[in-house]
Amino acid sequence: MRNVVLIGMTGTGKSTVGRLVAEALGWPHVDTDQRIEAVTGCTIAELFAERGEAWFRQREHEVLREVLKGEGQVVSTGGGIVLRRDNVALLTEGQFVVALTAKAETLVRRLRGDTSRPLLAGDVEARIHKLLCERRGLYDFAHVRIATDNRLPREVAEEIVRLYRCRMNGRTAGGSY
After folding, report:
1. Which pLDDT belongs to residue 172?
2. Which domains does the chain have, with CATH numbers?
3. pLDDT-based confidence at 177, cuts 50/70/90?
4. Phi, psi angle pair for 27, to nearest 5°
5. Integer Cα distance of 31 and 108 in angstroms
6. Which residues contact 52 (CB under 8 A, 6 or more apart)?
7. CA atoms within a 13 Å half-sphere pointing along the CA-CB vector of 97
8. Distance CA 42, CA 36 (A)
9. d(CA 177, CA 81)
10. Could you report the per-residue pLDDT of 115-142, keeping only the tens digit for each?
């Protein structure tokens, strides 16, 4: 397992938890959305508005492919990374993939008022429910799924580190399903 990769819906805590996992492992943290923003000089919202979702998804794929050439890093992905089969193929090749989950009401609470996420423009609650429905099952290929509702990011990070180390030591340790 070359890298630890966090996937999941927007608002599940991938970026925050990813930084903490990287710190605990002594590895660099790479956030694919931040990498895209750095390369393009635009925010994700600007890219969606100016170039469209299809253009963004292609850049996202290119960034993921480049990032996963490295090893010994924690990678936080955008929530829609799983929409392309070629991304899922990249993620299943030698990565330790952790899907972070949260209930709809948790996501609504965390994301209400966040204008940086273009797919949540408008009625946040309705958009979250729609995305959850559209993406049902798309994160299921992960090695483990961890619910982040009512948990501190540090607790989630500690669980990921423990599960990763167990996996690398050849032991099995169940994640939160």
Report:
1. 53
2. 3-168 (3.40.50.300)
3. very low
4. -110, 160
5. 22
6. none
7. 22
8. 8
9. 21
10. 666 666 778 888 889 999 999 999 999 9
